[in-house]
Predict the 3D structure of the following.
Amino acid sequence: MSALDDEMLALMRFVSERTIMPRWRNLATGDVIEKSQNELVTIADREAEEFLAEALAKLAPDVPIVGEEAAHADSSVLDRLSGPCWIVDPIDGTHNYAHGRTPFGIMVALADGGEAIAGWIYDPVKDRFCHARRGEGAFVNGERIAARPTGSEPPVAAISVIFLDEARRESVNSHVAPHYRVVETPRCAAEQYPRLVLGENDVSLFERTLAWDHAAGVLFLNEAGGKVCRPDGSAYRVDEIERTGMIGAASPSLWDGLAALYAKL
């Protein structure tokens, strides 16, 4: 791994050991609040983001930081996404974390011009470190990896319908789901993207595509030889704040199959 990758792994491990894991299954009353519908935040999210933001500012003082919790508090933070920036999700899978479950993880990406150029995903329970750099491949625990389909027939699909309206949910369930063996989503992009690379899932549908949830994962999956982009085939951009909908797959052919069904919705 490069010196930067080593630095990121050390940072992620440190914040996990210092803040995230000690509070897991040990959150007090008042440590968890609902910041919006279906969205929880914990004291660990806030403390981890503060630590990561401070560390990244020291690592690259001239690069602005876009953190999930900072952006929730002040939407003008999102204006930084079009230029060079760090993108931080201190605990992806907060719903699981807050309920004492797995999976959850830390996601950090480095972006420029609206596109991720490097990304890091860390699972503190498994001590699994995924990272990628644009044009340089994808790696898990330092070993280069290529995305592999499950080989299942029908293919395995993890389809998130949490943020779909009722009509859209019915359409997906009626016209897309019957073509796949549908499994539950982990409610955690830090886990879902590795599943598409590691032969556990074949395809995924994402409705919300916020930068902190997807910047690192999109780069990781594409660099591993899978395919993830907008349903119309356009590349994912971290600065397309209001845009929704994305398809991820373990191979381009699997992506094509789901995209053809999605286009009929």
Observations:
- The mean pLDDT is 95.
- DSSP finds eight helices and 14 strands in the chain.
